[in-house]
Amino acid sequence: MSDALVYGPEAPTERDLRLLGDVKGKRVLELGCGTGAAAVALAQQGAVVIGIDTSDERLTAARERAEQAEVRVDWHRGDLADLASLRAERIDRVVSISALSEADDEARVFR
């Protein structure tokens, strides 16, 4: 996996991503995708990735990162707990790296 990773304070570690197992062909939701480091790395590994973040600025950077990496990620701006538009049976894995602290209601995120 290391060839797909960008290291830095906003990037996931190899250990973070290994927790998800083999993601090839899986639909992966990233809550609090930030500037897209994990989402892009997962897409490079063959996942179908949906990234949600509360910041337009971070999503703009994430879109640019995905474009540079030549991968497709479905980006959404919104509250991390407001996932009504996503159908749970369509998501195989969920990841959130250092973003749950931004949620106004963590219990709602987990529901």
Task: Please give the structural blueprint.
Elements: H1 14-18, E1 27-31, H2 37-44, E2 48-53, H3 56-69, E3 73-77, E4 93-95, H4 106-110
Parallel strand pairs: 1-2, 1-4, 2-3
Helix pairs in contact: 2-3
Structure explained in plain terms:
The structure is a single chain. This protein is of the alpha/beta class. The chain is built from four helices and four strands. The radius of gyration is 13 Å and the shape is globular. A four-stranded parallel sheet has the order 3-2-1-4, with helices on one face. The N terminus is likely disordered.
Short description:
This protein has helices at residues 14-18, 37-44, 56-69, 106-110, and strands spanning 27-31, 48-53, 73-77, 93-95. It has 111 residues and is α/β, with parallel strands linked by helices.
Give the end-to-end Cα distance, rounded to a whole number of Å: 31 Å
Strand portion: 15-25%
Shape: globular
Give the H and E element order: HEHEHEEH
Major sheet size, sense and barrel closure: 4 strands, parallel
**Gyration radius, to the nearest Å?**
13 Å
The parts where pLDDT drops under 50 for at least 5 residues are 1-8
Mean pLDDT: 80
Tell me the helix content.
25-40%
Number of helices: 4
Order of adjacent strands in the largest pleated sheet:
3-2-1-4
Protein structure class:
alpha/beta
- Total beta strand runs: 4
